[in-house]
Amino acid sequence: MNNLLLTPIEYLKGVGPNRGELLRKELGIHKYGDLINLYPNRYIDRTRYYKINELQNNAAEVQIIGKIINVKTVEFAKGRKRLVATFVDDTGQMELVWFQGHKWIRESLKINEVIVIFGKCTSFNGMYNMAHPEIELLSEHEQSLRSAMQAIYPSTETLSNRGISNRTINKMMQQLFLETQALFTETLPDYLIQQLQLIPKKAALFNIHFPKSAEALAKAQYRLKFEELFFIQLQLIMKNLIQKHKIKGHPFTIVGEFFNEFYQNHLPFELTGAQKRVIKEIRADMGSNAQMNRLLQGDVGSGKTIVAFMSMLLAIDNGFQACLMAPTEILANQHFIGLSELANKLNINIKILTGSSKTASRKLIHEELENGTLQILIGTHALLEDKVKFKNLGLAVIDEQHRFGVEQRSKLWKKNTIPPHVLVMTATPIPRTLAMSLYGDLDISVIDELPPGRKPIQTVHRFDSNRLKVWKFIRDEIAIGRQIYIVYPLIQESEKMDFKDLMDGYESISRDFPLPQYSISILHGKMKPADKDAEMKRFSEGKTNIMVATTVIEVGVNVPNASVMIIESAERFGLSQLHQLRGRVGRGADQSYCILMTSHKLSSDSKTRMETMVSTNDGFEIAEVDLKLRGPGNLMGTQQSGVLNLQIADIVRDRDILALAREHAQKILSADAPLQKPEHATLRAVYIELTKKKNIWNYIS
Ligand code: ADP
Ligand code: MG
Q1: Distance of alpha carbon 659 from alpha carbon 431, whole angstroms
Q2: Which pLDDT tens digit goes with each residue over 441-482?
Q3: Whose CA is nearest to atom 19 of ligand 1?
Q4: Nearest CA to ligand 1 atom 17
Q5: How far, in Å, is the centroid of ligand 1 from the Cα of 269?
Q6: In terms of CATH architecture, what is 53-145?
Q7: Which intervals hold domain Helicase ATP-binding (predicted)?
Q8: Pairing state of beta strands 321-325 and 393-399?
Q9: Where would you tag: which of 59, 285, 366, 433 has the fewest CB atoms within 10 A of its CB?
Q10: Cα 1–chain centre separation
Q11: Each residue of 176-232: pLDDT tens digit?
């Protein structure tokens, strides 16, 4: 049977060399098997027949029974002609129009025979017309293998211009089922099909092309989506298993002086349960003979840094060096200041290398790296320069991974024959469902618990008309010594207007909160760096009460005494941005608040965004909603997801199926990784077929 599916498409009756060539070029259909896997984009209800007097000018697709009574060629512009046929039924008449392929269409049109036409109807000068309709004799129409739900296939302009209509593809599909007698082989193990109550492959293929009912279609779609996601997961997990065997890593066998000394005497706080769990996971990974490739996810403030530091201590305990790479100088500096404090207690040699490092200190760093006396190096992209050579890099930590390409990641470890363990940290909450399809080759650890004592930020949504009450609230908070952020959107496309809004806002706030009782800072991207620093300093030293700003404050600002975040025109921000902005408060011991200000007119998506922000502080939950609203391609930091080129499944809508598919792929491989059990013979065959195509490598990186 499988052999039959390898038959070149031109051999299918009704295709031939010309159409075969077109199908190859336009839809990538080379063989029978490719055609069977051309799944419809959508379906149309073809149980209903319209009368001409029922038509509406809404460009809906309709089918009508009637006759063509005449055909003529009309010149509508100099030298440009169209073919027009008059079509009638017992309620009226309309026109059928062709702009291309006149000759053979004209020849194929039958006058005064009962036909069924199908296409989009529009009205022009009081006359209904249908352009490039599908036409079928009523007698054929009644016989054809047709289902209530008519499949509409992907097409291209060239295809429809060259006479390969949806109808043609439909016919080819029927022919294919006839010739092959639909003897399609099963691809999933029987026990799985039974356990999950899936329909057999054969039935699924039939019903995806010729569904007898909406219910049959749903079952077919479910089965094929599951299968698609299942085989992707199977390959990803298998790849991970193979990698673990193949890529040797440095086994960190010792938990030594540095780690223990730090853990017993210098830990600045009690670790959270999540931090402990993640450190254990990392220790187990680095203790094995395989290279660690781990993604560490944790919301802003969840305490990833200490986990990274303790992992570095393990590297040093085992006689290796460690490095931490951050996306910006500011972040690298922050890490250096924080980690130096800890490292100094243990007499660890730690240094920082960025683009602005002076030549002398660079030289020293290069030397110490090569002779092995430098134990921890913090830095930016500068770490990737050729001159930076580690004596024995054992662990590379990468902060905020989405800003580094995969290529850059691997550049770090190309320097060593045995690659270092890699820990990638990200605060961008990538939903698990997405992460596991994108990074199926990375192991994932999640810090899903915030350090104790943090009070959850209270978030409310207020309309502009309630501003007076909000202002009263601000006054009360300032009266008890708190500070306030008021953030305006500044979005590139409408920069001028936004800037005006910001300035207008600043003026009216200055009026409502006048000197000398109140003082206000302002911060925006057009200011000189020195002025920005000065304003920021005034606010962080508590000299001003209110900071009016654009989203420039989104990254790296830390003022624990600021307890209220007001976001103006909140409907214009995306969810992840709102969440990042809110993360600027709630850093001290006081109760913090976030107030989302919007106008009354909100789209339903905006409403969902506001409701989500009000109902949860959980970055992962927010990311899940964001994913649903925007689709994976737009989710911040996951642009790579565009590579996921799925045929039928949709990782946003079909997340539950994805989770199920992953669960079962994992179960199967942990019981039978080589897929050698008799019940997995089918799986093995499909798997080998897939790896031959190598298409899975396109799914990742
Ligand atoms: P992020 O995950 O955003 O990088 P950090 O590692 O910068 O978070 O930690 C945020 C703050 O929380 C830091 O001031 C850190 O010292 C503190 N912190 C981290 N873990 C704990 C903990 N277990 N208990 C108390 N404070 C902690
Ligand atoms: Mg951090």
Answers
A1: 12
A2: 677 888 988 888 888 899 999 999 999 999 999 999 999 999
A3: 303
A4: 303
A5: 9
A6: Beta Barrel (2.40)
A7: 285-447
A8: parallel
A9: 59
A10: 37
A11: 999 888 778 899 999 999 999 999 999 999 999 998 888 899 999 999 999 999 998
51 Rama class: left (phi>0) / alpha (psi -120 to 50) / beta: beta
Q: In this structure, are residues 71 and 109 in contact, taking their beta carbons and an 8 Å threshold? A: yes
Domain ranges of the chain: 1-46+147-184, 53-145, 257-447, 458-616
The answer to whether domain 53-145 and domain 257-447 are alike in fold is: no
Atom of ligand 1 nearest to the CA of 270: 23
Residues 6+ apart with CB under 8 A from 664: 192, 196, 230
Query: Residue with the nearest Cα to atom 21 of ligand 1?
Result: 451
Q: Does position 44 have pLDDT exceeding 90, yes or no? A: no
| CA distance linking residue 352 with residue 375, whole number of Å | 11
The Cβ of residue 151 has, within 10 Å, a number of other Cβ atoms equal to 23
Q: Let me know: does 230 contact 436? Beta carbons within 8 Å.
A: no
**Model pLDDT for residues 51-91, shown as the tens digit of each residue:** 999 988 777 788 999 999 999 998 877 778 889 999 999 99
Ligand 1 binding pocket (C-beta < 6 A) is: 269-272, 275, 298, 300-306, 427, 451
Pick the CATH number of 458-616 from 3.40.630.30, 3.40.1170.60, 3.40.50.720, 3.40.50.300: 3.40.50.300
CA of 425 to the centre of ligand 2 (A): 8
The reported pLDDT for the residue numbered 192 is 96
The whole model's pTM is what?
0.60
- What are the tokens at 92? 């009226």
Pocket test for ligand 1, best of 276, 278, 306 (most atoms within 8 A of CB): 306
Q: Is 470 helix (H, G, I), strand (E, B) or coil?
A: helix
**22, two tokens:** 């077109």
Closest CA to 383 of 405, 352, 358, 338: 352
Could you tell me the sign of the dihedral formed by the alpha carbons of 381, 382, 387, 390, in that order?
Answer: negative
Q: Report the pLDDT value the prediction gives residue 696, as an integer from 0 to 100.
A: 39
